[in-house]
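Moderator note: this is an archived Q&A kept for reference. The question asked for a predicted structure of one protein chain; the sequence and the answer are reproduced below.
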Amino acid sequence: MTTIKTLLLSSLVVALLPSAGVYAAPPDDTLVVGFSADASTFDPAQISSRDNSNIARHMFRTLYEGLPDGDTVPDLAVSYVVSDDGLDYTYTLAEGLTCEDGEPLTAEDVAYSFNRAADPANKFTGSTPGYIFSSVDFQSAEAVSELEAKISIGRKNPIAFSLLADVLIHCKDSYEALSIEEAVVAPVASGDYRLVTWDRGSQIVLEKFRGDAAFDNLVFRIIPEASTRTAELIAGNVDIITNVGPDQIDAVDSSGNAVVQKVEGTRRIYVGFNLREDFAEASEGGAAIQKTDVRKALQYAIDVPAICSQLLNFDCVRADGLVNPPNDNQSLEPYPFDPDMAEELLDAAGYPRGEDGVRFEINLQGPRGRYLNDAAVIQAIGQYLNDIGVSTTVELMEFASVYVPLIREKNAGPLFFLGTGGNLSSPLNDMTDLSTVEAGTNYTSWANPEWFDGWAEIAETTTPEEQRPIIDRMLEVFYNDPPWLMLYFQPDFYGVSNRINWEARRDERVYLWGATLASQ
């Protein structure tokens, strides 16, 4: 077998030299962030990735703001009430709100933001319609007065409030004047920053036009190569970088110019099984993974702790599902690394090795540069599968313009590598990736009724204690009929310049309005 250490060395041997490019140290009124992936859209209803959302959130406000600990505080709204049946949420807005172009921001604009995202004619597939709305069965939104907006949902959900708090609000008149295509590239801000330029694949520049944030300009540079991000940080050309390469942590910490903030992240990293019928018909591998026994067999093939320690520079306990500990099902044990068991189960499932040693062929797709050392991890997974006779072709893609559309349209696979954001406030936050079979974040098209029927039971509960046995039962279904090849919860390594004061969050939300110069 090609060892993981060999993959690590071949992918990470780099020279960390200061950048000789055209960039220079930013002025005092400007904060520069190095991201690994570009944005794909600035239409609020189409945003689906965290990097994209992190930029857009500086331009758009929400009704309430989520905090790192899972709590929420008022943003555009000052208060809210919930109807007795739990299906209507009425928010009261602050007075005097406006959008970038001076248009007053009222309850009518809030209702418009929700209804526009839900309009089937727009065919939006971002997180708002695909994840939030499917989780609560969004019905409608209306302005009941100038400052009161009512959001109606069709299914009670104990975390509906925190989900609705993530919808990006935008002004009706401004967006009715934009085509769908124009809204992608010409956002009209409801927050304190507005878009100045978007040079695709290069950088995105925002400028403050109101508010009291310390920096007048935010520059998001797109730097896919981890070693280049690190070099730019050490050279003083960038203030914050995400996804510091594990092999580069010591270089940053010893540079005297920056340090690495190490955060125990909540993002679930997994390989998805695309269970759509057309994938099953298109290849032998696509057909094989339709079988639960095959998907369980592949769990045993991957040495996840070795991937964590050798490729990501941290020790991990393998995930046993889609919920972050300690909110997971405590009775479940992660699948161990046992390639002999994997081979035995594949034999029993009707996929013995052929004369050439191959059981079946399959494609594994994934991004390059979006997640921590993702290319090396994906290649290692492909090698582990090859070792048990599953001939795996690895296809690495640019994230924003190539991979995101595949994922959004559920066309990645048959195997696809992905990370989805997690939450510590409730197991239900993590579980709502699979709120319905049709949910935009059910990228695998998994349809096990034992899981999906559980949501109706949860809706009838009133306390976390009542929910817990239902949750544990559902997580056991997920474990025994896995739509994911379960991997790990990604640690987050942020490089932060000594020039600024800024603290990384566990939930990957890179919010900059609280950042300041260290000299202030």
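Archived answer notes: The chain has 20 helices and 20 strands.
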